Amino acid sequence: xxxRPDLHQHYVRACQNxxxxxxxxxxxxxxxxxxxxxxxWAKGITLKIAGNNHLVPVQxxxxxxxxxxxxxxxxxxxxxxxxxxxxxxxxxGAKHVATFLQENSTLRYLNLMLNDIGxxxxxxxxxxLHRNETLVCLRMTGNKIGNKGGMFFASMLQIxxxxxxxxxxxxxxxxxxxxxxxxALTQNKSVKAINLNRPLLYSQEEETTVHIxxxxxxxxSLVELHLCKHEMKxxxxxxxxxxLYENSSLRYLxxxxxKITRDGVKFLGDLLKxxxxxxxxxxxxxxxxxxxxxxxxxxxxxxxxxxxxxxxASSNISGKGLVALSDAMKTNMELSYIYIWGNxxxxxxxxxxxELIQTGRLKLNCTDVEPYEADGHVHLAELSHGLxxxxxxxxxxxxxxxxxxNASLVIVAVSEHLSGxxxxxxxxxxxxxxxxxxxxxxxxxxxxAGPSSTRQLRRKSCRCPSWAVLSAVxxxxxxENPQW
Length: 484
Fold this sequence. Notes:
Elements: H1 7-18, H2 24-34, H3 38-43, E1 45-48, H4 63-73, E2 79-83, H5 91-103, E3 109-111, H6 119-131, E4 137-139, H7 146-157, E5 165-167, H8 175-187, E6 193-195, H9 207-218, E7 224-226, H10 234-244, E8 252-254, H11 262-274, E9 280-282, H12 289-302, E10 309-311, H13 319-331, E11 337-339, H14 347-358, E12 369-374, E13 377-382, H15 407-411, H16 425-442, E14 444-447, E15 456-459, H17 465-468
Parallel strand pairs: 1-2, 2-3, 3-4, 4-5, 5-6, 6-7, 7-8, 8-9, 9-10, 10-11
Antiparallel strand pairs: 12-13, 14-15
């Protein structure tokens, strides 16, 4: 008979041992985790302790709370994700995070978004990742680590070979560390997605964009790149397009909230005529205008058959350009997602997109507008859909991972919540090794049970809850794990 882990009881005892009061929100999350079924535990679970949770009363996690939590999760094998966004963690909390990353060998996803971690905290976390070999996704968004903190992550990228997704958006990084990160990514082969949104740039010469373009010419592993709010102009777009002619891996390019005009979009239109890899292009909040929309529509109607999602929301486009984009969708069957809210809708635009939706060519969950009729005229209303609507906030009801509001997570798999993926074969072997080494101290044994596609771990005599979950765990066979 299997024994469920009891994380909550461990947390209560840890609070008593360290003389810390219990955080009711952490206690609630651990109680819910204890109720998870065996299948969830077999795949690994993510503890969601986000400070902006609207569904239950929240007492935000402090540095002392994190110290207790880290001691509880120290040897917990199947907690593979930890979501601590929107709390009040400082550099002192970052020290606990760094120690945890050095000692834990199973965590794959860590979200520290929108805390109060600074430069010294960034240094501790980055240095911990020099040794860590399991973390796949790290989100530091909104922590003001500055240019110096960004340099520590640039150094880490030269050493770490397991991190696949790194989010450093809104971290107040500067020109120096962006160039250093771009240089590191020229040689790094593991990072598949990186967010460099909203740096603090004081030059008008676009040196950072030039270095990122040089990186794209040589990098063959990057799939997703966010360059929102880079003060990018047409010169920078031209440099990126020149690089992307030689790049065959990038599938998601985010250039939203820049200073790109119709002339810059012309370079993108020419690129789309030849590029065969881009699947998502986000140009929202640029000054594209009708001419820019027509450049895009010509490329999409006659040449490109790989782009699946296009966002031109709030781009100063009027009826002529929007109708051209709707006409492109009639001939291009691959383009399935289009976001246009915030532009100038005339009657022709409303009729064109209403027709696309009514005929089934454009599904409501793949756009941000919905037609309605009033006084005999067709109008368009806004829908809360987009490529990444819930990037910085979670809704007050429903799921924060709603695929219609976060379509990019569906289209490009690297953006998925990584803790929901099946463990890789090497990762499962690591867990097996941990179990076998623990058998001498805890009385566990690994045995093959049933068909060759499953492996089972049985408990002899142990009350250690972090290992109790391994009892009767079966790992499904998959393309990633054929031998399991």
